[in-house]
């Protein structure tokens, strides 16, 4: 099963808005914001770790026109209800309604820019809530539309920062910048290496041809809302591990260097209100310091930190495997990443673990792992093209025999990489 054709979907959305609002087709504008997969780099972007992303041919789409009265009027193809807001009277985000994301986008945008015109439109997500960054994708749609009708020029890094503000500050999700950075900077047939600490990006080519692999997306049928899972708790545990490691090791030593006026000789994570050096993320800690002090961490914090440092290694190994066309090695790293997510990071519902095992065992699948937070949604896989169709059928049949309750919702797609926005 392939994702719907982008042009056809856009035309249908424009027609729907024209019929509903009595508009002319030529007046309607469209945005297509792709989803992303992250083959390696699970759960480390919020800790300043390096990650690998790739944009795919599944999208959040919006057809819209500007409004001169500063109102926002939106409907969704996927969800019931409508959004009706005034730009200068945006209520507090209540969480749980699909309109939360446009509220968050407006609030983030108005921190830096003045808005006078609103938008009226219809949205459609090809797989919302599936763990493919649909929340970042839809926020980028809103930011792009509002910026366009208000003649605001946003840089690529503006999109990254504003999307993070919207999700962290207004949605309440303490995620990093993997999703939106992939969506903004993604390149077809390339992995995007994202150094989330600097931040910086680099598109990594591969020696294999595009026809030599397919991307597989297996949707469990269970959407997830990360703010209602253990996602934020895991982020907090990583931060606690960083703080404890900093106190135990090198950051404690840095205080003495700072007192002697030698702070420029070493990297200081942050300095609190009392002038103390602190670690706020695991990327503030060297791998050597982790190994030196790991036995002093609680078992839980040890597991979180262990996942971080081993995942960083997998990302670095994965770059070379991808660059050299070693897909089998890359696929093995994906499997190891997912196993670490289960055992060390302790995410993954029983259902999504079932699906991961089924995808991983399907003939022709080179590697697979959870997509997104790992608390529901999708499993992504790398599959040999000659086995792609049979793998789709095998995965769906096996999964539904275990979980017939999602017969109408579970889907398995074949996907291709595309350029970002």
Describe the structure.
- Strands 1, 2, 3, 4, 5, 6 and 7 form a seven-stranded mixed beta sheet that branches. A four-stranded antiparallel beta sheet has the order 11-12-8-13.
- A hairpin with a 4-residue loop joins strand 6 and strand 7 (200-204).
- It has twelve helices and 13 strands.
- The protein has a domain at 6-206: Ribosomal Protein S5, domain 2, CATH 3.30.230.10.
- The chain has helices spanning 6-21, 100-109, 134-149, 156-171, 178-185, 231-248, 250-259, 287-293, 299-323, 327-343, 350-361, 388-402; strands spanning 29-40, 50-67, 71-76, 82-86, 118-125, 191-195, 200-204, 214-219, 270-271, 277-278, 365-370, 378-383, 411-415.
- The radius of gyration is 22 Å and the shape is globular.
- With 421 residues, it is of the alpha+beta class.
SSE order and pairing:
Blueprint: H1 6-21, E1 29-40, E2 50-67, E3 71-76, E4 82-86, H2 100-109, E5 118-125, H3 134-149, H4 156-171, H5 178-185, E6 191-195, E7 200-204, E8 214-219, H6 231-248, H7 250-259, E9 270-271, E10 277-278, H8 287-293, H9 299-323, H10 327-343, H11 350-361, E11 365-370, E12 378-383, H12 388-402, E13 411-415
Parallel strand pairs: 3-5
Antiparallel strand pairs: 1-2, 2-5, 2-6, 3-4, 6-7, 8-12, 8-13, 9-10, 11-12
Helix pairs in contact: 2-3, 2-4, 3-4, 4-5, 6-9, 9-10, 11-12
Number-wise, the strands total 13
Q: What is the CATH class designation of the domain at 6-206?
A: Alpha Beta
Low-pLDDT stretches = 262-268
Give helix % range. Answer: 40-55%
| Proportion of strand residues | 15-25%
Radius of gyration: 22 Å
What's the helix count? 12
Query: Helix/strand-derived class?
Result: alpha+beta
Helix-strand pattern, N to C?
HEEEEHEHHHEEEHHEEHHHHEEHE
Span between N and C termini? Answer: 24 Å
Oligomer: single chain
Shape: globular
Q: What is the fold named in CATH at topology level of the domain at 6-206?
A: Ribosomal Protein S5, domain 2
Q: Specify the CATH architecture of the domain at 6-206.
A: 2-Layer Sandwich
Main sheet characteristics: 7 strands, mixed
Mean pLDDT: 92
């Amino acid at each position: 099963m392939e994702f719907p054709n982008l042009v056809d979907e856009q035309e249908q959305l424009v027609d729907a808005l024209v019929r509903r609002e009595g508009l002319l087709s030529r007046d309607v504008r469209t945005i297509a914001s792709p989803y992303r997969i992250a083959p390696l780099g699970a759960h480390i972007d919020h800790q300043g770790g390096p990650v690998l992303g790739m944009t795919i041919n599944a999208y959040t789409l919006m057809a819209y026109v500007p409004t001169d009265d500063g109102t926002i009027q939106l409907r969704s193809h996927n969800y019931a209800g409508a959004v009706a807001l005034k730009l200068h009277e945006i209520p507090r985000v209540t969480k749980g309604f699909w309109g939360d994301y446009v509220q968050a986008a407006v609030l983030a945008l108005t921190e830096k820019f003045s808005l006078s015109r609103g938008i009226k439109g219809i949205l459609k997500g090809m797989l919302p809530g599936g763990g493919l960054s649909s929340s970042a994708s839809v926020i980028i749609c809103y930011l792009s539309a509002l910026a366009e009708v208000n003649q605001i020029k946003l840089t690529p890094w503006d999109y990254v920062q504003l999307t993070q503000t919207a999700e962290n500050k207004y949605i309440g999700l303490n995620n990093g910048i993997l999703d939106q950075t992939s969506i903004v900077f993604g390149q077809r047939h390339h992995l995007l290496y994202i150094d989330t600490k600097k931040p910086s990006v680099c598109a990594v080519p591969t020696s294999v041809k595009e026809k030599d692999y397919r991307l597989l997306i297996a949707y469990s049928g269970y959407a997830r809302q990360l703010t209602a899972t253990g996602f934020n708790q895991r982020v907090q545990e990583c931060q606690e591990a960083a703080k404890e490691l900093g106190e135990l090791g090198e950051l404690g030593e840095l205080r003495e260097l700072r007192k002697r006026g030698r702070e420029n000789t070493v990297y200081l994570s942050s300095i609190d209100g009392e002038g103390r050096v602190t670690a706020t993320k695991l990327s503030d800690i060297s791998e050597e310091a982790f190994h030196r002090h790991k036995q002093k961490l609680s078992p839980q914090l040890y597991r979180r930190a262990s996942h971080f440092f081993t995942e960083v290694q997998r990302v670095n190994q994965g770059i070379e495997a991808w660059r050299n066309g070693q897909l089998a090695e890359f696929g093995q790293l994906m499997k190891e990443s997912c196993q670490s997510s289960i055992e060390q990071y302790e995410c993954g519902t029983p259902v999504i673990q079932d699906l991961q095992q089924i995808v991983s065992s399907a003939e022709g699948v080179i590697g697979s792992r959870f997509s997104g937070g790992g608390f529901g949604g999708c499993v992504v896989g790398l599959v040999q093209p000659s086995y792609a169709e049979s793998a789709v059928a095998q995965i769906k049949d096996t999964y539904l025999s275990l979980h017939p309750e999602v017969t109408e919702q579970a889907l398995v797609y074949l996907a291709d990489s595309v350029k970002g926005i």
